[in-house]
Amino acid sequence: MSLQSFARSRFSRLLVTFLTVLALVGATPARAQRVNIVRDAEIEALVAEYVRPILQAAGLSRSGIEVVLVNDNSFNAFVAGRRIFVHSGALLQAETPNEIIGVLAHEVAHLAGGHQHRLRQQLESAQTMAVVSMLLGIGAGVAGAAVGAEGLGQAGPGLALGGAEIARRNLLAYQRTEEITADRAAIDYLNKTKQSGHGMLKTFDRMSRDMALAGVRVDPYQLSHPVPRERIANLEELVRKSPYFDRQDPPQLQLRHDLMRAKLAAYTAGPAAAARIFRDRSGLPIQYADAISTYLRGNPRDALAKIDRLIAAQPRNPYFREMRGEILMKANRPAEAAKSFAEAVKMAGNSVGVGLIQVAHGQALLATGDPQQIRRAVTELKAGLGREPEYVNGYRFLAQAYGRLGDVGAAELATAEERFHAGAYQDAKSFALRAQAKLKRGSPDWIRAQDIINFKPQRR
Length: 460
Prior knowledge:
By secondary structure, the protein is mainly alpha-helical. Helices cover about 70% and strands about 5% of the residues. GO terms for molecular function: metallopeptidase activity.
């Protein structure tokens, strides 16, 4: 191997190792990885309600920021682009809305402060430092070998790795500073919206206790975030002197939060999970979890009776109606399911996530097999996808509906959309070409097919 190719090879290995370590400590966490996204109209509407006043306080109410739910049982949240990703574990573990609102305020502070952009600049600077130190290390090794100085020759790799370590520590120190800044900005947003920062302190206290119970001993200089106890010490005085420190979440909001946790518990942690969370064994949250668990166990008749009791208690709750539609679909009663979904759509109004219920309504109409209902399904599916253009399953149902109606060109285009939004761009282009052959040239659908054909994904 020539010296030049050897240098390139060592540079590649060093850079990969460096970036891998950064990913492990959180400098480029799951933001750059594929994450398992969960879609649920009830949860999305509630979290959107939590974050809306915070975005307004940060001056970001018109910036198109959205919150995305990640199927992960850990207590975590992060930002990427214009999206805030929240783990389902955070929602399940947070006992009050205020705890999650504090988490969201912190992530909004990262967005408002432009921390992502500055982190990329710091990363580039750190990479440059690592590369320079690596070249110095190679140079020392080559020089030592040329003059026969064995000790100096052996020092080369140490110089290179030492430079990478310095670069990594500098980057981590920068991140810790940004985290402290975001914590303080979050308290400011909470004060502006007349909400307590108590939930943030409770979150950090939970993290500290979890670390202690796990017997985790960490070097604070190896972390991308301040240790929880340090964060509490930095914030406690600010939080406690706020005039809103003792302010409680409104009871109706707390109930919605508990219903959300009950749903997550039933879907992600099993039928007994809700009983471990809620002390009140007769309240609506535990009943909701029981109805969902009964549905998941494949007993739609009993699940239907249980959800009907919940609807009697809260007749205007759109998500109980949505759940009723899901149960009726499992019972193979699509016409009745469609009626429940239609009621849920009407009750949800313009809430975030209502497009998901519209897609479910369209799916139920499609399942009836009645041509007239299938035509209604097309209308409802297109309306839902208009609100949720990235919802892959909706395009699949729309393709089926068009196929049942004999509109092959539109079915091919819907399949192209489904593959496109799933990231299978070559498949999407193939279906778009097939759709164009059957669509009227220059029509809106033909032009959309051409857009898919012309699309060039960005290289990372």
